[in-house]
Amino acid sequence: MMKRIGILTCSNATQDLGCSSVSCLRDLRKRKGEFSRYTEAVLIGIINCPGCPTITGSEKMLRRIKSLTEFNVDAIHLTYCLIALCPFKEKYFNDLRKTFPNIEFIAGTHEVHLEHSEFREKVSGLFCQIPRNMIDIIHNR
User: Fold this and answer.
1) What are the boundaries of each domain within the chain?
2) Are the CB atoms for 124 and 81 separated by under 8 Å?
3) 66: exposed, middle or buried (C-beta count within 10 Å: 0-12, 13-18, 19+)?
4) What is the CATH number of domain 3-138?
5) 31-83 pLDDT, tens digit each
6) What is the pTM of this model?
7) What are the φ and ψ backbone dihedral angles of 48, each rounded to 5 degrees?
8) What is the 8-class DSSP label of residue 12?
9) Distance (Å, rounded) from C-alpha 35 to C-alpha 117?
């Protein structure tokens, strides 16, 4: 039976670091990583999390997930980067499963290329770079 799936990405990875979900989509096509469980699957949509939460983090997450659930998804995969990087993932998983009990929430997408600790260390270096902008160029910095 054809599974209808969605993907939830990490906002920091997609918005700040430019992840285009290429590895996730490649492994979905090749049925690798966490997508190996499917013989037939169709991707319904990809959304990103609302970013690291404030007091309304879970509510914002639930609203975003609802946009996928309205299209009858069977499962939603939380990307490898979200699982490896998000300190709130357990709370999100609990809230998602409680609110949408008929949808399977799966930790991961593509095959693991780096263990979580090594991945976090490398990504942390990307986030800690000093950003440059047009003023830096004007002032020759």
Assistant:
1) 3-138
2) no
3) exposed
4) 3.40.50
5) 999 999 999 999 999 998 887 776 666 788 888 888 889 999 999 999 998 99
6) 0.83
7) -110, 160
8) I
9) 23
Alpha helices in the chain (DSSP H): 11, 22-30, 57-69, 80-85, 89-99, 116-127, 134-138
Q: Is 17 in contact with 123 (CB distance < 8 Å)? A: yes
- Strand 3-9 to strand 41-48: parallel, antiparallel, or no bridges (unpaired)? parallel
Element (H, E) at 7: strand 3-9
The answer to whether 133 touches 124, Cβ cutoff 8 Å, is no
What φ, ψ does residue 75 adopt, rounded to 5°?
-150, 150
Please tell me the predicted confidence (pLDDT) of residue 121.
81
Q: CA-to-CA distance for 44 and 76, rounded, in angstroms?
A: 10
How buried is 16 (Cβ within 10 angstroms: 0-12 exposed, 13-18 middle, 19+ buried)? middle
Using the CB atoms, write b or e for 20-58: b if 16+ within 10 Å: ebebbbebbeeeebbbeebeebebbebbbbbeebeeebb
For the chain, first and last CA: distance in Å? Answer: 58
